[in-house]
């Protein structure tokens, strides 16, 4: 199936350019420009100077996050806890470390000031990595006290998407210890960084075979505040989640092994990489695979707000479903399993 490998390169040449760079706009586009140049061709971009007017850029960066603590002093938020900063990611099975499962975070309701202290001072409890987020429109519910600090929607994006307002607006507060494993979303994503930086690795939907998506049993971390330890428990009854197998940053001692297991990723076309800084927006098109790391800003936190707009289930979606259904055989390599149906689980910690 050399045609599939040729498709990876043709998508880059025809739509994206073959230099692994994400286009950067210095000013917000018009709705027409955004629709024509980025939404219709399903092409990511970074927009600078689009949220300079947000009060959040100055208020949320105050020393010791005094504004945030004061504004949310009486609020409880959903705090995600893991031992490694990798939630909704692959982890060794408790009963069989040589096998992997899909591990979700321990989630607990926590007073916001306590959650913020745990996030902003990661060395205080190095055995726990905390992330304040909940992908259920949490900015307009848990964090509604901050609503006036950001725009309720991105006006030029809303117009380009036909006038429909975002399906969800989410707030993310974490630190440099949190990572997001490769995944994709069925949303058009406008991702605005308020503090710190986000480091993305991106792959277009046509590269689906390079991520070795397999079925993994679902598990959840359980955290005991009494012992300060985590247990990883398999769900009962067993539920399987299709998830990307590739870690783009394996430990040096495992690099050779990972390259041997996943050669289509490591030896294929170079992924797109970009850093989104405070005050910038990343347009992440629907169905694009992305892996995310982050660097903390002032006060030890990385803070972002993202707007999820419904994607159009059009001919591009049909093309992708056809492509992922193919049992792809490289001229020299066999891709392990056919891609299976999409999980309802959403990725943690963007």
TrEMBL record:
InterPro entries assigned: Cupin_8, JmjC_dom, RmlC-like_jellyroll
Which segments constitute the JmjC domain?
Answer: 130-324
Q: Which parts of the chain span the membrane according to its record?
A: none
Matches recorded under PANTHER family: BIFUNCTIONAL PEPTIDASE AND (3S)-LYSYL HYDROXYLASE JMJD7, HYPOXIA-INDUCIBLE FACTOR 1 ALPHA INHIBITOR-RELATED
User: Into which family does the record put it?
Assistant: Belongs to the JARID1 histone demethylase family.
Name-wise, this protein is Lysine-specific demethylase JMJ32
């Amino acid at each position: 199936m050399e045609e599939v490998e040729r498709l990876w390169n043709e998508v880059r040449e025809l739509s994206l350019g073959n230099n692994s760079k994400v286009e950067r706009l210095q000013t917000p586009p018009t709705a027409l420009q955004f629709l024509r140049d980025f939404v219709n061709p399903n092409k990511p971009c970074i927009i600078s100077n689009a949220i300079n007017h947000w009060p959040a850029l100055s208020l949320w960066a105050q020393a010791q996050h005094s504004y945030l603590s004061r504004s949310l002093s009486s609020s409880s938020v959903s705090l995600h806890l893991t031992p490694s900063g990798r939630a909704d990611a692959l982890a060794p099975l408790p009963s069989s470390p040589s096998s992997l499962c899909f591990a979700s975070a321990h989630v607990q309701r926590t007073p916001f000031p306590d959650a913020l202290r745990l996030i902003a001072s990661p060395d205080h409890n190095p055995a726990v990595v905390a992330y304040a987020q909940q992908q259920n429109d949490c900015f307009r519910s848990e964090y509604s006290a901050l609503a006036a600090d950001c725009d309720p929607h991105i006006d030029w994006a809303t117009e380009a998407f036909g006038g429909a307002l975002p399906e969800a607006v989410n707030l993310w507060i974490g630190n440099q210890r949190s990572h997001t494993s490769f995944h994709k979303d069925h949303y058009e994503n406008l991702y605005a960084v308020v503090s710190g930086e986000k480091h993305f690795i991106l792959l277009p939907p046509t590269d689906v075979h390079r991520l070795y998506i397999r079925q993994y049993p679902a598990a959840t971390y359980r955290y005991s505040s009494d012992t300060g330890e985590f247990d990883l428990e398999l769900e009962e009854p067993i539920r399987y989640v299709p998830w990307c197998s590739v870690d783009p940053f394996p430990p040096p001692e495992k690099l050779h092994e990972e390259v041997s297991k996943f050669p289509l990723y490591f030896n294929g076309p170079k992924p797109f990489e970009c850093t989104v800084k405070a005050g910038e927006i990343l347009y992440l098109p629907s169905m694009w695979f992305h892996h995310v790391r982050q660097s903390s800003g002032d006060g030890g936190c990385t803070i972002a707000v993202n707007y999820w707009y419904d994607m159009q289930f059009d001919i591009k979606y049909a093309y992708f479903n056809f492509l992922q259904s193919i049992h792809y055989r490289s001229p020299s390599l066999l891709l392990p399993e056919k891609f299976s149906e999409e999980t309802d689980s959403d990725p943690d910690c963007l």
